[in-house]
Design a protein that fits this description.
This protein is of the alpha+beta class. The protein has helices at 2-11, 55-62, 111-119, 179-195; strands spanning 68-76, 79-87, 95-102, 140-141, 148-154, 157-164, 167-173. Helix 2 runs antiparallel to helix 4 (179-195).
């Protein structure tokens, strides 16, 4: 069970994209996923994550102006992952948005299957807890966001995952505020993004 929650919080996207170094939730300072040459990213249907939020929207929600965007993409395991690092005046305030969609070709995988495996794991098949291991709280259902949404807590922060059709997104915000504040900001950003998918 513990490994399920850890993978939920930090490896959902990265395990598929080659297990790149995970980004911290509160201070998304790590570099974005590297582009993978020859990974099928020449496809025209790849969503540009950086195009899904405007500077005005970010400032209205996060309270700080956008300085720069750093797009990246990777395609592996039948999924195409587009990510944008929205750089704000301080790295701690910045936002990371990841969009996961089906890759082109016969090897394409339906992101809904990954979603089901991640958020609707059969409890009987889950790994049992071991004595002495710390437990992460389970994902929290967030109503009225997309088709379904969950907050995956990690420390005082976390990430919001939302599903719409056969595409899912992950939003992580930094900056001050407790987990409730980060959930509200992530939810507001996700609602904007989902309208554009």
């Amino acid at each position: 069970m513990r490994s399920f929650f850890i993978s939920l919080a930090v490896c959902l996207v990265y395990a598929i994209a080659g297990c790149s170094k995970p980004q911290t939730v509160e201070s998304p300072k790590s570099p974005p996923l590297a582009n993978t040459p020859g990974a099928g990213l020449e496809a025209t249907n790849v969503i540009d994550a950086c195009s899904l939020l405007t500077s005005k929207e970010i400032e209205a929600i996060q309270g700080a102006p956008l300085k720069d965007t750093k797009p990246s993409a990777n395609s592996q395991g039948g999924l195409t992952i587009s990510q944008c690092y929205f750089l704000l005046p301080t790295a701690a305030e910045s936002i990371v948005l990841t969009v996961t969609q089906r890759a082109d070709g016969a090897g394409g995988r339906d992101p809904k299957q990954l979603w089901k495996e991640t958020f609707h794991l059969d409890k009987e098949k889950a790994e049992p807890d071991r004595k002495g291991e710390s437990k992460l709280p389970p994902p929290q259902n967030i109503p009225d966001v997309g088709d379904e949404a969950f907050w995956a807590p990690l420390g005082t922060g976390g990430s919001l995952y939302a599903l719409k059709g056969n595409i899912h997104i992950r939003v992580s915000v930094g900056g001050p505020g407790d987990q409730a504040a980060k959930i509200q900001k992530s939810k507001a950003l996700a609602e904007v993004v989902l309208k554009r998918l």
